[in-house]
Prior knowledge:
The structure holds two protein chains of two kinds. Chain A is mainly α. In chain A, about 75% of the residues lie in helices and about 0% in strands.
Amino acid sequence: MPKRWLRHPSFAVGAVLVGLLLLAAALSLLWQPYPPAEIDIPNKLAAPSWAHWLGTDSLGRDIASQLLVGSQNSIVVGVVAVGIGLTLGVALGCLAAARRGWVEELVMRTSDFTFAFPALLSAIMLTAIYGPGLVTSIVAIGIFNIPVFARLTRASARSVWTLDYVLAARAAGKGAWRITSDHVLPNIANVLIVQATIQFALAILAEAALSYLGLGTQPPQPSWGRMLNEAQTMLFDAPLLAVYPGVTIALAVLGLNLMGDGLRDLLDPKLSRQR
Amino acid sequence: MLLFLLRRVATFLATLAVASLVVFAVLEWLPGNPAQVMLGDTATAESLAALEARLGLDQPAWLRYGAWVGGLLRGESAMSYAYDTPTFELIAERLQVSLPLALLAMALTVVVALALGIYAASRHNRIGDVGVMALSQLGVAVPSFWLAILLILLFAVQLQWVSAGGFPGWRGDDGGGLWAGVKALLLPALSLAAVQAAILARVTRSAVLEAMREDYVRTARAKGLSRRAVLWRHVLRNAMVPVLTIMGLQFANLITGAIVVENVFVLPGIGRLVFQAIANRDLVLVRDIVMLLAAVVVLVNFAVDVLYAWIDPRLRVTGDA
Protein backbone atom coordinates (compact mmCIF):
# COMPACT_ATOMS: atom_id res chain seq x y z
CA MET A 1 0.00 0.00 0.00
CA PRO A 2 1.60 3.31 -1.05
CA LYS A 3 2.23 5.81 1.74
CA ARG A 4 -0.02 8.51 0.26
CA TRP A 5 -2.99 6.17 0.77
CA LEU A 6 -2.65 6.46 4.53
CA ARG A 7 -2.65 10.25 4.24
CA HIS A 8 -6.07 10.17 2.57
CA PRO A 9 -8.44 10.81 5.50
CA SER A 10 -11.46 8.80 4.25
CA PHE A 11 -9.36 5.84 3.27
CA ALA A 12 -7.32 5.86 6.47
CA VAL A 13 -10.36 6.01 8.79
CA GLY A 14 -12.21 3.45 6.67
CA ALA A 15 -9.24 1.09 6.58
CA VAL A 16 -8.87 1.26 10.36
CA LEU A 17 -12.57 0.44 10.87
CA VAL A 18 -12.52 -2.39 8.33
CA GLY A 19 -9.27 -3.66 9.87
CA LEU A 20 -10.95 -3.77 13.28
CA LEU A 21 -13.89 -5.68 11.81
CA LEU A 22 -11.60 -8.27 10.23
CA LEU A 23 -9.53 -8.48 13.40
CA ALA A 24 -12.66 -9.05 15.51
CA ALA A 25 -13.77 -11.86 13.20
CA ALA A 26 -10.31 -13.45 13.17
CA LEU A 27 -9.99 -13.16 16.94
CA SER A 28 -13.41 -14.72 17.51
CA LEU A 29 -12.31 -17.78 15.55
CA LEU A 30 -9.52 -18.36 18.06
CA TRP A 31 -10.90 -17.00 21.30
CA GLN A 32 -14.16 -15.64 22.73
CA PRO A 33 -14.75 -14.28 26.23
CA TYR A 34 -17.70 -16.70 26.57
CA PRO A 35 -19.43 -19.13 24.22
CA PRO A 36 -21.88 -16.69 22.56
CA ALA A 37 -24.92 -18.96 22.89
CA GLU A 38 -24.25 -19.92 26.52
CA ILE A 39 -27.36 -19.15 28.58
CA ASP A 40 -26.75 -17.95 32.13
CA ILE A 41 -30.09 -16.91 33.60
CA PRO A 42 -28.78 -15.92 37.09
CA ASN A 43 -26.60 -13.32 35.36
CA LYS A 44 -29.21 -11.98 32.96
CA LEU A 45 -29.22 -8.28 32.00
CA ALA A 46 -25.94 -7.74 33.87
CA ALA A 47 -24.40 -4.28 33.58
CA PRO A 48 -21.04 -3.90 31.84
CA SER A 49 -18.22 -5.15 34.08
CA TRP A 50 -14.80 -6.79 33.89
CA ALA A 51 -16.45 -10.18 33.64
CA HIS A 52 -18.89 -9.06 30.92
CA TRP A 53 -17.45 -6.06 29.05
CA LEU A 54 -20.77 -5.01 27.55
CA GLY A 55 -23.03 -6.83 29.98
CA THR A 56 -25.40 -9.70 29.23
CA ASP A 57 -28.75 -10.00 27.47
CA SER A 58 -32.12 -11.25 28.75
CA LEU A 59 -30.87 -14.85 28.73
CA GLY A 60 -27.54 -14.00 30.35
CA ARG A 61 -25.56 -14.39 27.13
CA ASP A 62 -22.42 -12.28 26.90
CA ILE A 63 -22.99 -9.32 24.56
CA ALA A 64 -19.33 -8.80 23.62
CA SER A 65 -18.97 -12.46 22.62
CA GLN A 66 -22.11 -12.31 20.51
CA LEU A 67 -20.89 -9.17 18.75
CA LEU A 68 -17.47 -10.72 18.10
CA VAL A 69 -18.84 -13.95 16.68
CA GLY A 70 -21.58 -12.05 14.82
CA SER A 71 -18.87 -10.32 12.81
CA GLN A 72 -18.01 -13.69 11.19
CA ASN A 73 -21.57 -13.92 10.04
CA SER A 74 -21.60 -10.45 8.47
CA ILE A 75 -18.27 -11.04 6.74
CA VAL A 76 -19.31 -14.42 5.35
CA VAL A 77 -22.54 -12.96 3.95
CA GLY A 78 -20.70 -9.96 2.53
CA VAL A 79 -17.92 -11.97 0.91
CA VAL A 80 -20.14 -14.65 -0.60
CA ALA A 81 -22.93 -12.31 -1.73
CA VAL A 82 -20.48 -9.86 -3.31
CA GLY A 83 -18.55 -12.83 -4.73
CA ILE A 84 -21.69 -14.12 -6.45
CA GLY A 85 -22.39 -10.67 -7.84
CA LEU A 86 -18.80 -10.12 -8.96
CA THR A 87 -18.33 -13.50 -10.62
CA LEU A 88 -21.60 -13.65 -12.53
CA GLY A 89 -21.99 -9.91 -13.02
CA VAL A 90 -18.49 -9.36 -14.41
CA ALA A 91 -18.79 -12.42 -16.66
CA LEU A 92 -22.12 -11.21 -18.05
CA GLY A 93 -20.90 -7.62 -18.38
CA CYS A 94 -17.76 -8.68 -20.26
CA LEU A 95 -19.82 -10.93 -22.50
CA ALA A 96 -22.21 -8.08 -23.29
CA ALA A 97 -19.38 -5.67 -24.08
CA ALA A 98 -17.52 -8.21 -26.23
CA ARG A 99 -20.44 -9.66 -28.18
CA ARG A 100 -22.73 -6.62 -28.47
CA GLY A 101 -25.97 -7.11 -30.46
CA TRP A 102 -28.71 -9.31 -29.04
CA VAL A 103 -26.42 -10.78 -26.35
CA GLU A 104 -25.83 -7.31 -24.94
CA GLU A 105 -29.53 -6.47 -25.21
CA LEU A 106 -30.47 -9.67 -23.40
CA VAL A 107 -27.96 -9.15 -20.58
CA MET A 108 -28.98 -5.52 -20.10
CA ARG A 109 -32.72 -6.14 -20.14
CA THR A 110 -32.29 -9.02 -17.69
CA SER A 111 -30.32 -6.74 -15.38
CA ASP A 112 -32.98 -4.04 -15.63
CA PHE A 113 -35.52 -6.62 -14.77
CA THR A 114 -33.64 -8.03 -11.77
CA PHE A 115 -33.80 -4.58 -10.18
CA ALA A 116 -37.53 -5.16 -9.80
CA PHE A 117 -36.66 -7.68 -7.10
CA PRO A 118 -34.71 -5.98 -4.31
CA ALA A 119 -32.87 -8.40 -1.99
CA LEU A 120 -35.65 -8.31 0.57
CA LEU A 121 -38.28 -9.29 -1.99
CA SER A 122 -36.19 -12.22 -3.26
CA ALA A 123 -35.55 -13.24 0.33
CA ILE A 124 -39.28 -13.20 1.07
CA MET A 125 -40.01 -15.45 -1.91
CA LEU A 126 -37.17 -17.85 -1.12
CA THR A 127 -38.08 -17.97 2.58
CA ALA A 128 -41.71 -18.74 1.78
CA ILE A 129 -40.52 -21.87 -0.03
CA TYR A 130 -37.27 -23.00 1.57
CA GLY A 131 -37.60 -21.48 5.03
CA PRO A 132 -35.32 -18.86 6.59
CA GLY A 133 -31.56 -19.30 6.88
CA LEU A 134 -28.08 -18.05 6.13
CA VAL A 135 -28.04 -19.55 2.62
CA THR A 136 -31.39 -18.01 1.69
CA SER A 137 -30.20 -14.55 2.69
CA ILE A 138 -26.85 -14.93 0.93
CA VAL A 139 -28.55 -16.04 -2.30
CA ALA A 140 -31.09 -13.22 -2.14
CA ILE A 141 -28.43 -10.56 -1.59
CA GLY A 142 -26.13 -12.18 -4.15
CA ILE A 143 -28.79 -12.20 -6.86
CA PHE A 144 -29.33 -8.48 -6.41
CA ASN A 145 -25.59 -7.86 -6.76
CA ILE A 146 -25.38 -9.53 -10.18
CA PRO A 147 -27.05 -6.75 -12.21
CA VAL A 148 -25.13 -4.08 -10.28
CA PHE A 149 -21.80 -5.55 -11.44
CA ALA A 150 -23.10 -6.55 -14.88
CA ARG A 151 -24.11 -2.96 -15.69
CA LEU A 152 -20.94 -1.43 -14.31
CA THR A 153 -18.72 -3.96 -16.09
CA ARG A 154 -20.46 -3.51 -19.41
CA ALA A 155 -20.29 0.28 -19.27
CA SER A 156 -16.61 0.31 -18.25
CA ALA A 157 -15.64 -2.51 -20.61
CA ARG A 158 -17.27 -0.81 -23.59
CA SER A 159 -15.09 2.24 -23.15
CA VAL A 160 -11.99 0.03 -23.01
CA TRP A 161 -13.04 -1.68 -26.24
CA THR A 162 -12.91 1.67 -28.05
CA LEU A 163 -9.31 2.39 -27.02
CA ASP A 164 -6.74 2.50 -29.82
CA TYR A 165 -4.52 -0.27 -28.54
CA VAL A 166 -7.52 -2.59 -28.23
CA LEU A 167 -8.41 -1.82 -31.84
CA ALA A 168 -4.80 -2.59 -32.73
CA ALA A 169 -4.95 -5.87 -30.82
CA ARG A 170 -8.12 -6.81 -32.69
CA ALA A 171 -6.55 -5.90 -35.99
CA ALA A 172 -3.60 -8.12 -35.06
CA GLY A 173 -6.04 -10.98 -34.73
CA LYS A 174 -6.39 -11.24 -30.95
CA GLY A 175 -9.64 -12.96 -29.99
CA ALA A 176 -12.38 -11.49 -27.81
CA TRP A 177 -11.44 -13.67 -24.83
CA ARG A 178 -7.79 -12.68 -24.94
CA ILE A 179 -8.67 -9.00 -25.25
CA THR A 180 -11.05 -9.32 -22.31
CA SER A 181 -8.52 -11.02 -20.07
CA ASP A 182 -5.42 -9.06 -21.21
CA HIS A 183 -6.84 -5.56 -21.61
CA VAL A 184 -10.42 -5.15 -20.43
CA LEU A 185 -10.25 -6.77 -16.98
CA PRO A 186 -7.00 -5.09 -15.83
CA ASN A 187 -8.43 -1.74 -16.93
CA ILE A 188 -11.75 -2.05 -15.14
CA ALA A 189 -10.39 -3.74 -11.99
CA ASN A 190 -10.20 -0.47 -10.05
CA VAL A 191 -13.82 0.45 -10.71
CA LEU A 192 -14.88 -3.04 -9.67
CA ILE A 193 -12.86 -2.92 -6.44
CA VAL A 194 -14.50 0.35 -5.42
CA GLN A 195 -17.98 -0.96 -6.22
CA ALA A 196 -17.29 -4.25 -4.40
CA THR A 197 -16.43 -2.29 -1.24
CA ILE A 198 -19.72 -0.36 -1.44
CA GLN A 199 -21.73 -3.52 -2.16
CA PHE A 200 -20.05 -5.22 0.80
CA ALA A 201 -21.38 -2.45 3.02
CA LEU A 202 -24.86 -2.80 1.51
CA ALA A 203 -24.71 -6.58 2.00
CA ILE A 204 -23.96 -6.14 5.71
CA LEU A 205 -26.95 -3.78 6.00
CA ALA A 206 -29.22 -6.16 4.07
CA GLU A 207 -28.10 -9.15 6.14
CA ALA A 208 -28.75 -7.23 9.35
CA ALA A 209 -32.26 -6.34 8.13
CA LEU A 210 -32.98 -9.93 7.11
CA SER A 211 -31.81 -11.41 10.39
CA TYR A 212 -33.67 -8.68 12.29
CA LEU A 213 -36.82 -9.94 10.53
CA GLY A 214 -35.91 -13.54 11.30
CA LEU A 215 -35.25 -14.36 7.64
CA GLY A 216 -31.47 -14.60 7.97
CA THR A 217 -29.09 -16.48 10.20
CA GLN A 218 -30.88 -18.71 12.66
CA PRO A 219 -30.06 -19.32 16.33
CA PRO A 220 -27.77 -20.35 17.93
CA GLN A 221 -25.38 -18.64 15.45
CA PRO A 222 -25.33 -15.02 16.68
CA SER A 223 -26.00 -12.20 14.25
CA TRP A 224 -26.10 -8.45 14.77
CA GLY A 225 -29.55 -8.09 13.23
CA ARG A 226 -31.14 -10.70 15.45
CA MET A 227 -29.49 -9.18 18.53
CA LEU A 228 -31.35 -5.96 17.70
CA ASN A 229 -34.59 -7.86 17.33
CA GLU A 230 -34.15 -9.49 20.73
CA ALA A 231 -33.08 -6.17 22.26
CA GLN A 232 -36.28 -4.50 21.08
CA THR A 233 -38.39 -6.58 23.46
CA MET A 234 -36.22 -5.30 26.33
CA LEU A 235 -36.25 -1.59 25.43
CA PHE A 236 -37.79 -0.51 28.74
CA ASP A 237 -35.53 -2.63 30.94
CA ALA A 238 -32.21 -2.60 29.11
CA PRO A 239 -32.08 0.12 26.44
CA LEU A 240 -28.32 -0.30 25.96
CA LEU A 241 -28.83 -3.75 24.47
CA ALA A 242 -30.33 -2.03 21.43
CA VAL A 243 -27.38 0.34 21.14
CA TYR A 244 -24.34 -1.98 20.90
CA PRO A 245 -25.30 -4.06 17.84
CA GLY A 246 -26.51 -0.96 16.01
CA VAL A 247 -23.29 0.93 16.65
CA THR A 248 -21.33 -2.12 15.49
CA ILE A 249 -23.29 -2.38 12.23
CA ALA A 250 -23.01 1.36 11.62
CA LEU A 251 -19.24 1.37 12.23
CA ALA A 252 -18.68 -1.60 9.91
CA VAL A 253 -20.77 -0.02 7.15
CA LEU A 254 -19.21 3.41 7.70
CA GLY A 255 -15.74 1.88 7.48
CA LEU A 256 -16.46 0.12 4.21
CA ASN A 257 -18.13 3.20 2.70
CA LEU A 258 -15.27 5.50 3.71
CA MET A 259 -12.77 2.99 2.36
CA GLY A 260 -14.72 2.78 -0.91
CA ASP A 261 -14.80 6.58 -1.23
CA GLY A 262 -11.10 6.76 -0.47
CA LEU A 263 -10.26 4.04 -2.96
CA ARG A 264 -12.26 5.85 -5.64
CA ASP A 265 -10.13 8.96 -5.13
CA LEU A 266 -6.87 7.07 -4.90
CA LEU A 267 -7.39 4.64 -7.75
CA ASP A 268 -8.99 7.10 -10.16
CA PRO A 269 -7.41 10.56 -9.80
CA LYS A 270 -9.50 11.87 -12.71
CA LEU A 271 -12.72 11.25 -10.83
CA SER A 272 -11.54 12.86 -7.62
CA ARG A 273 -10.61 16.07 -9.43
CA GLN A 274 -14.09 16.34 -10.86
CA ARG A 275 -15.79 16.05 -7.52
CA MET B 1 -41.87 11.89 -27.88
CA LEU B 2 -44.73 9.59 -28.93
CA LEU B 3 -42.34 6.95 -30.27
CA PHE B 4 -40.28 7.23 -27.11
CA LEU B 5 -43.38 6.80 -24.95
CA LEU B 6 -44.56 3.79 -26.94
CA ARG B 7 -41.17 2.11 -26.58
CA ARG B 8 -41.12 2.78 -22.85
CA VAL B 9 -44.67 1.50 -22.36
CA ALA B 10 -43.79 -1.68 -24.28
CA THR B 11 -40.69 -2.25 -22.11
CA PHE B 12 -42.76 -1.57 -19.00
CA LEU B 13 -45.41 -4.13 -19.96
CA ALA B 14 -42.81 -6.71 -20.99
CA THR B 15 -40.99 -6.28 -17.67
CA LEU B 16 -44.24 -6.76 -15.77
CA ALA B 17 -44.99 -9.91 -17.78
CA VAL B 18 -41.54 -11.39 -17.07
CA ALA B 19 -41.84 -10.42 -13.40
CA SER B 20 -45.14 -12.30 -13.15
CA LEU B 21 -43.52 -15.35 -14.77
CA VAL B 22 -40.65 -15.27 -12.27
CA VAL B 23 -42.98 -14.89 -9.28
CA PHE B 24 -45.11 -17.75 -10.55
CA ALA B 25 -42.10 -19.94 -11.29
CA VAL B 26 -40.45 -19.38 -7.90
CA LEU B 27 -43.56 -19.73 -5.76
CA GLU B 28 -45.67 -22.28 -7.66
CA TRP B 29 -43.56 -24.18 -10.13
CA LEU B 30 -40.10 -24.59 -8.52
CA PRO B 31 -41.32 -26.03 -5.22
CA GLY B 32 -42.99 -28.90 -7.09
CA ASN B 33 -46.08 -29.10 -4.93
CA PRO B 34 -47.09 -25.82 -3.29
CA ALA B 35 -49.78 -27.61 -1.30
CA GLN B 36 -47.08 -29.70 0.35
CA VAL B 37 -45.10 -26.54 1.22
CA MET B 38 -48.19 -24.88 2.67
CA LEU B 39 -49.25 -27.84 4.80
CA GLY B 40 -45.78 -29.02 5.81
CA ASP B 41 -44.40 -32.54 6.03
CA THR B 42 -46.92 -33.74 8.56
CA ALA B 43 -49.95 -33.23 6.30
CA THR B 44 -52.30 -36.16 5.77
CA ALA B 45 -52.98 -37.42 2.24
CA GLU B 46 -56.62 -36.26 2.42
CA SER B 47 -55.87 -32.70 3.49
CA LEU B 48 -53.14 -32.54 0.83
CA ALA B 49 -55.54 -33.73 -1.87
CA ALA B 50 -58.17 -31.25 -0.70
CA LEU B 51 -55.79 -28.29 -0.85
CA GLU B 52 -54.41 -29.42 -4.21
CA ALA B 53 -57.92 -29.39 -5.59
CA ARG B 54 -58.64 -25.99 -4.03
CA LEU B 55 -55.50 -24.46 -5.50
CA GLY B 56 -56.22 -26.08 -8.84
CA LEU B 57 -52.95 -28.00 -8.78
CA ASP B 58 -54.51 -30.78 -10.85
CA GLN B 59 -54.36 -28.41 -13.82
CA PRO B 60 -51.18 -27.90 -15.85
CA ALA B 61 -48.91 -25.03 -14.75
CA TRP B 62 -49.55 -22.81 -17.78
CA LEU B 63 -53.31 -22.96 -17.19
CA ARG B 64 -52.81 -21.96 -13.56
CA TYR B 65 -50.53 -19.12 -14.61
CA GLY B 66 -53.13 -17.96 -17.14
CA ALA B 67 -55.86 -18.08 -14.52
CA TRP B 68 -53.77 -16.05 -12.07
CA VAL B 69 -52.76 -13.33 -14.54
CA GLY B 70 -56.25 -13.25 -16.04
CA GLY B 71 -57.63 -12.74 -12.55
CA LEU B 72 -55.15 -9.94 -11.83
CA LEU B 73 -56.15 -8.17 -15.04
CA ARG B 74 -59.86 -8.50 -14.34
CA GLY B 75 -59.36 -7.35 -10.77
CA GLU B 76 -60.45 -10.67 -9.31
CA SER B 77 -58.07 -12.20 -6.84
CA ALA B 78 -57.55 -15.66 -5.47
CA MET B 79 -58.62 -16.52 -1.93
CA SER B 80 -55.94 -16.28 0.71
CA TYR B 81 -55.34 -19.74 2.11
CA ALA B 82 -54.97 -18.65 5.73
CA TYR B 83 -57.54 -15.84 5.90
CA ASP B 84 -60.11 -17.25 3.47
CA THR B 85 -60.56 -13.72 2.12
CA PRO B 86 -59.74 -12.44 -1.40
CA THR B 87 -56.08 -11.38 -1.35
CA PHE B 88 -56.95 -8.02 -2.94
CA GLU B 89 -59.16 -7.14 0.02
CA LEU B 90 -56.39 -7.95 2.49
CA ILE B 91 -53.83 -6.01 0.48
CA ALA B 92 -56.11 -2.99 -0.04
CA GLU B 93 -56.77 -2.81 3.69
CA ARG B 94 -53.04 -2.86 4.50
CA LEU B 95 -52.19 -0.36 1.76
CA GLN B 96 -54.07 2.26 3.80
CA VAL B 97 -51.08 2.18 6.11
CA SER B 98 -48.19 1.33 3.77
CA LEU B 99 -48.99 3.84 1.04
CA PRO B 100 -49.26 6.90 3.30
CA LEU B 101 -46.10 5.71 5.09
CA ALA B 102 -44.13 5.47 1.84
CA LEU B 103 -45.43 8.83 0.59
CA LEU B 104 -44.73 10.59 3.89
CA ALA B 105 -41.22 9.12 3.96
CA MET B 106 -40.61 10.14 0.35
CA ALA B 107 -41.84 13.69 1.02
CA LEU B 108 -39.56 13.98 4.06
CA THR B 109 -36.65 12.56 2.04
CA VAL B 110 -37.09 15.05 -0.80
CA VAL B 111 -37.52 18.12 1.41
CA VAL B 112 -34.58 17.32 3.69
CA ALA B 113 -32.26 16.09 0.94
CA LEU B 114 -32.83 19.01 -1.45
CA ALA B 115 -32.43 21.55 1.34
CA LEU B 116 -29.23 19.97 2.68
CA GLY B 117 -27.81 19.21 -0.77
CA ILE B 118 -28.33 22.72 -2.11
CA TYR B 119 -27.04 24.24 1.11
CA ALA B 120 -23.90 22.09 1.01
CA ALA B 121 -23.24 22.93 -2.63
CA SER B 122 -23.63 26.65 -2.00
CA ARG B 123 -21.12 26.36 0.88
CA HIS B 124 -18.76 24.18 -1.17
CA ASN B 125 -15.66 23.15 0.84
CA ARG B 126 -16.67 25.33 3.76
CA ILE B 127 -17.66 24.18 7.22
CA GLY B 128 -21.38 23.83 6.36
CA ASP B 129 -20.57 21.59 3.41
CA VAL B 130 -18.23 19.40 5.41
CA GLY B 131 -20.82 19.11 8.18
CA VAL B 132 -23.60 18.05 5.82
CA MET B 133 -21.35 15.53 4.10
CA ALA B 134 -20.23 14.01 7.41
CA LEU B 135 -23.86 13.81 8.51
CA SER B 136 -24.84 12.08 5.29
CA GLN B 137 -21.94 9.61 5.54
CA LEU B 138 -23.30 8.71 8.95
CA GLY B 139 -26.89 8.53 7.68
CA VAL B 140 -25.95 6.08 4.95
CA ALA B 141 -24.26 3.77 7.46
CA VAL B 142 -27.11 3.58 9.96
CA PRO B 143 -29.60 0.77 9.31
CA SER B 144 -33.11 2.25 9.10
CA PHE B 145 -34.54 -0.34 11.48
CA TRP B 146 -31.92 0.54 14.10
CA LEU B 147 -32.71 4.23 13.75
CA ALA B 148 -36.34 3.22 14.21
CA ILE B 149 -35.47 1.44 17.46
CA LEU B 150 -33.46 4.47 18.64
CA LEU B 151 -36.39 6.78 17.86
CA ILE B 152 -38.69 4.51 19.87
CA LEU B 153 -36.14 4.57 22.68
CA LEU B 154 -36.06 8.38 22.67
CA PHE B 155 -39.64 9.40 21.92
CA ALA B 156 -41.61 6.49 23.36
CA VAL B 157 -39.48 5.15 26.21
CA GLN B 158 -37.68 8.27 27.49
CA LEU B 159 -39.91 11.20 26.56
CA GLN B 160 -43.16 9.19 26.26
CA TRP B 161 -44.52 11.53 23.58
CA VAL B 162 -45.77 8.76 21.30
CA SER B 163 -46.60 5.11 21.68
CA ALA B 164 -43.90 2.57 20.85
CA GLY B 165 -45.85 1.18 17.93
CA GLY B 166 -49.23 0.21 16.55
CA PHE B 167 -51.68 2.13 14.40
CA PRO B 168 -54.95 3.66 15.62
CA GLY B 169 -56.62 3.75 12.18
CA TRP B 170 -57.71 6.69 10.05
CA ARG B 171 -61.30 6.87 11.25
CA GLY B 172 -62.20 8.82 14.35
CA ASP B 173 -64.99 6.49 15.49
CA ASP B 174 -62.59 3.76 16.57
CA GLY B 175 -60.10 5.90 18.43
CA GLY B 176 -58.06 6.95 15.40
CA GLY B 177 -58.39 9.91 13.10
CA LEU B 178 -56.25 11.85 10.67
CA TRP B 179 -53.93 13.39 13.23
CA ALA B 180 -53.61 10.20 15.27
CA GLY B 181 -52.80 8.28 12.08
CA VAL B 182 -50.17 10.75 10.90
CA LYS B 183 -48.67 10.83 14.39
CA ALA B 184 -48.31 7.05 14.37
CA LEU B 185 -46.62 7.16 10.97
CA LEU B 186 -44.27 10.04 11.76
CA LEU B 187 -41.46 8.12 13.47
CA PRO B 188 -41.55 5.22 10.98
CA ALA B 189 -41.43 7.70 8.09
CA LEU B 190 -38.59 9.58 9.75
CA SER B 191 -36.47 6.45 10.20
CA LEU B 192 -37.08 5.45 6.58
CA ALA B 193 -36.40 8.94 5.27
CA ALA B 194 -33.15 9.57 7.16
CA VAL B 195 -31.14 7.01 5.22
CA GLN B 196 -32.63 7.92 1.86
CA ALA B 197 -32.22 11.65 2.53
CA ALA B 198 -28.55 11.08 3.32
CA ILE B 199 -28.02 9.46 -0.07
CA LEU B 200 -30.14 11.97 -1.97
CA ALA B 201 -28.44 14.95 -0.30
CA ARG B 202 -25.06 13.77 -1.63
CA VAL B 203 -26.47 13.29 -5.12
CA THR B 204 -28.13 16.72 -5.02
CA ARG B 205 -24.93 18.36 -3.84
CA SER B 206 -22.75 16.89 -6.57
CA ALA B 207 -25.40 17.52 -9.25
CA VAL B 208 -25.70 21.18 -8.23
CA LEU B 209 -21.91 21.56 -8.12
CA GLU B 210 -21.67 19.96 -11.55
CA ALA B 211 -24.31 22.28 -13.00
CA MET B 212 -22.69 25.36 -11.43
CA ARG B 213 -19.55 24.66 -13.45
CA GLU B 214 -21.41 24.87 -16.78
CA ASP B 215 -20.79 27.69 -19.23
CA TYR B 216 -24.36 28.95 -19.14
CA VAL B 217 -24.02 29.62 -15.43
CA ARG B 218 -20.94 31.77 -16.04
CA THR B 219 -22.82 33.56 -18.82
CA ALA B 220 -25.82 34.19 -16.59
CA ARG B 221 -23.58 35.50 -13.83
CA ALA B 222 -21.67 37.66 -16.33
CA LYS B 223 -24.85 39.32 -17.56
CA GLY B 224 -25.52 40.39 -13.99
CA LEU B 225 -27.90 37.81 -12.53
CA SER B 226 -27.42 37.29 -8.81
CA ARG B 227 -26.04 34.00 -7.48
CA ARG B 228 -29.42 33.19 -6.00
CA ALA B 229 -31.29 33.83 -9.25
CA VAL B 230 -28.86 31.66 -11.22
CA LEU B 231 -29.17 28.89 -8.69
CA TRP B 232 -32.96 28.79 -8.76
CA ARG B 233 -33.53 29.56 -12.44
CA HIS B 234 -30.75 27.63 -14.17
CA VAL B 235 -28.78 25.35 -11.91
CA LEU B 236 -31.60 23.52 -10.16
CA ARG B 237 -33.53 22.58 -13.27
CA ASN B 238 -30.42 21.06 -14.79
CA ALA B 239 -29.35 19.38 -11.61
CA MET B 240 -32.74 17.67 -11.30
CA VAL B 241 -32.03 14.94 -13.89
CA PRO B 242 -29.62 12.83 -11.80
CA VAL B 243 -31.56 13.67 -8.64
CA LEU B 244 -34.76 12.31 -10.17
CA THR B 245 -33.09 9.07 -11.26
CA ILE B 246 -31.86 8.39 -7.77
CA MET B 247 -35.27 9.30 -6.34
CA GLY B 248 -36.85 6.62 -8.49
CA LEU B 249 -34.41 4.01 -7.24
CA GLN B 250 -34.98 5.23 -3.71
CA PHE B 251 -38.70 4.72 -3.88
CA ALA B 252 -37.98 1.03 -4.42
CA ASN B 253 -35.71 1.10 -1.36
CA LEU B 254 -38.43 2.86 0.62
CA ILE B 255 -40.92 0.15 -0.22
CA THR B 256 -38.67 -2.68 0.91
CA GLY B 257 -37.41 -0.57 3.82
CA ALA B 258 -41.04 -0.06 4.83
CA ILE B 259 -41.44 -3.84 5.18
CA VAL B 260 -38.73 -3.81 7.86
CA VAL B 261 -39.79 -0.61 9.59
CA GLU B 262 -43.45 -1.68 9.73
CA ASN B 263 -42.26 -4.67 11.69
CA VAL B 264 -40.30 -2.48 14.10
CA PHE B 265 -43.34 -0.29 14.80
CA VAL B 266 -45.90 -3.11 14.57
CA LEU B 267 -47.80 -1.21 11.88
CA PRO B 268 -50.56 -3.20 10.15
CA GLY B 269 -49.18 -2.60 6.65
CA ILE B 270 -48.12 -4.73 3.69
CA GLY B 271 -44.83 -5.58 5.40
CA ARG B 272 -46.55 -7.14 8.39
CA LEU B 273 -49.02 -8.90 6.12
CA VAL B 274 -46.31 -10.57 4.06
CA PHE B 275 -44.62 -11.84 7.22
CA GLN B 276 -47.83 -13.22 8.58
CA ALA B 277 -48.33 -14.84 5.18
CA ILE B 278 -44.88 -16.45 5.36
CA ALA B 279 -45.52 -17.64 8.91
CA ASN B 280 -48.86 -19.11 7.78
CA ARG B 281 -47.22 -20.57 4.67
CA ASP B 282 -49.90 -18.76 2.70
CA LEU B 283 -48.20 -18.93 -0.70
CA VAL B 284 -51.21 -17.45 -2.47
CA LEU B 285 -50.95 -14.26 -0.43
CA VAL B 286 -47.13 -14.14 -0.63
CA ARG B 287 -47.36 -14.45 -4.43
CA ASP B 288 -49.81 -11.57 -4.80
CA ILE B 289 -47.93 -9.26 -2.40
CA VAL B 290 -44.55 -9.91 -4.02
CA MET B 291 -46.12 -9.30 -7.43
CA LEU B 292 -47.62 -6.01 -6.21
CA LEU B 293 -44.32 -4.79 -4.77
CA ALA B 294 -42.34 -5.77 -7.87
CA ALA B 295 -44.97 -4.03 -10.02
CA VAL B 296 -44.66 -0.84 -7.96
CA VAL B 297 -40.88 -0.85 -8.40
CA VAL B 298 -41.22 -1.36 -12.17
CA LEU B 299 -43.91 1.33 -12.39
CA VAL B 300 -41.82 3.88 -10.53
CA ASN B 301 -38.82 3.22 -12.77
CA PHE B 302 -41.05 3.64 -15.81
CA ALA B 303 -42.41 6.92 -14.45
CA VAL B 304 -38.86 8.16 -13.81
CA ASP B 305 -37.81 7.32 -17.36
CA VAL B 306 -40.71 9.31 -18.77
CA LEU B 307 -40.17 12.26 -16.41
CA TYR B 308 -36.49 12.19 -17.26
CA ALA B 309 -37.27 12.63 -20.95
CA TRP B 310 -39.72 15.38 -20.14
CA ILE B 311 -37.11 17.34 -18.17
CA ASP B 312 -34.24 16.69 -20.59
CA PRO B 313 -35.50 16.65 -24.19
CA ARG B 314 -32.12 15.38 -25.49
CA LEU B 315 -32.91 11.97 -24.07
CA ARG B 316 -36.06 11.63 -26.19
CA VAL B 317 -34.13 11.69 -29.45
CA THR B 318 -31.89 8.75 -28.69
CA GLY B 319 -34.49 7.15 -26.46
CA ASP B 320 -31.59 5.58 -24.62
CA ALA B 321 -31.91 6.92 -21.11
